[in-house]
């Protein structure tokens, strides 16, 4: 298997809902394992929280996530965004519509000075997404 780079997102108890939402956005196969599934006897109230999840899509995207482990502090920040790009306008606008619904749009999806169509939003789970649609070369 070749090396790959993919985002791994930490959530504060809503990883399952977020990953099911992303499966609705991107499609694909979602694998979810709880702390209980991995035999974490010390998990207590977190037994049904997500220890590891992975969404793999037909487009080749891989997104991983988990709930913050028991005893660790959840510290969301603004130092990372997830970017989706390509030249299939219909597909990418479909992702945009779903990701930005019930979220906050910081940059409306529209033609930008570099020639591509671009938008940035924060979804309802607090994750920042950038969608860039490359203009097809004539």
UniProtKB/TrEMBL annotation:
<dbReference type="InterPro" id="IPR004360">
    <property type="entry name" value="Glyas_Fos-R_dOase_dom"/>
</dbReference>
<dbReference type="InterPro" id="IPR029068">
    <property type="entry name" value="Glyas_Bleomycin-R_OHBP_Dase"/>
</dbReference>
<dbReference type="InterPro" id="IPR028973">
    <property type="entry name" value="PhnB-like"/>
</dbReference>
<feature type="domain" description="Glyoxalase/fosfomycin resistance/dioxygenase">
    <location>
        <begin position="5"/>
        <end position="131"/>
    </location>
</feature>
<protein>
    <submittedName>
        <fullName>VOC family protein</fullName>
    </submittedName>
</protein>
<dbReference type="Pfam" id="PF00903">
    <property type="entry name" value="Glyoxalase"/>
</dbReference>
